[in-house]
Each structure stands twice: as structure tokens, then as C-alpha cells.
Amino acid sequence: MDAPTKAKDALPGEGQPSEVEKRGPSTQPDMISRGQAEKLADEKHSKLDKEIARLTKANEATVQKLADAEAKEVERQRERDETAVRDADGDPVK
């Protein structure tokens, strides 16, 4: 049995780099200028600002719909209460 018997035996020692880390990246990362980075950041921020504005508008519309629905429910409940009072007044035996 040449295979390691414990999981920790199969891993490189603590603090030792793996074979992949020893070799390093196979290609150099793409480099961009500061101006290009700022332009990309501005575009990203612009997109995010537009998305935030869209979501804020949608949230405000939802809040308004909820307020309208609550007002309608209050009105319906008031009408039910008035009907119940009228029915109770008209029926002396209850």
C-alpha cells in the first residue's frame, strides 16, 4: 500500500506551494492603462446608476400600489361594518 492512508498525507505540507503555484500563470494577465480602467469604471458606474434608478422607480410604484390597496381595503371594511350595523339595527331579535 503505497497510497497515503489519510487525507492530510495526500496534501502538500503546510506552507508549501502546490505544483501549479510553483509554475506560476501560463500567460501574462492583460494590462490596461489607467485611462482605460477609469473609462471602464465610469461605464460600469453609469450602468449601475441606471439600474438603481430603475429599481427605485419600480419600488416607488410598488409602494404606491400597496398604499392604494390598503386604502381600498379600509373602505371595504368600513362598508362591511356599516352594513353589519344596519342589519343589526333592523333585526331586533339577535
From TrEMBL:
This is Uncharacterized protein. Residues 1-45, 66-94 are annotated as: Disordered. Residues 1-11, 36-45, 67-94 have a biased composition (Basic and acidic residues). It comes from marine sediment metagenome.
